[in-house]
């Protein structure tokens, strides 16, 4: 009971709102996911040249020097579920590691009852005064408005936040909507695509096909408004194939 009260006070004192529409205005954003497609080309210098580099969940734990040539060395913003599970969660929130990597914002995108509960439980567990962030409630409402019973993954929320922010340019790599394996050292126990698909179905929270559909819809909409969206080869191929199949139906 004491931890609950202290955790709540600490959460109120240290939680801020991260507004992508303000923070990303006129900026160039790189969003790096956990799929193996991020390692198709040595794009490290290209990625590090963006105004903001976003990564997701466990990414800081597997961002080692031997990978810099492919996926860059910077992380400015980490989107994290605040579920510190090793299986199906975001992994341990390690502030010393984040400080070492220069991470400026640790954002919990899930600004709903479940997300706020996860946020509170984090502060109850650690009683740590580090600043954390939530997406604006209205912005997160837009993120999930077409999901029905499904919960957007943290990766999708990171993508949506960048693409829909009205920024100048977004580069996306390492996102294949679970159609290819994870990159090495991220979730090696779930690198098999079928095994990971079965795991997601067993969880019953996420719908990768719906996320792909919503990403394409938002990307097309924002490109018409002037945001340049650059996708890696794997994602570009997945999007092209999805559109082709959709037109055939």
TrEMBL record:
Main EC class of this protein? transferase
Q: Which named protein is this?
A: Glycosyltransferase family 29 protein
Record-annotated membrane-spanning stretches: none
As for membrane topology, the entry says: Single-pass membrane protein
Coiled-coil residue spans? none
Q: Which Pfam families match?
A: Glyco_transf_29
Question: Which cellular compartments is it found in?
Answer: Endomembrane system; Membrane
Q: Name one GO molecular function term.
A: glycosyltransferase activity
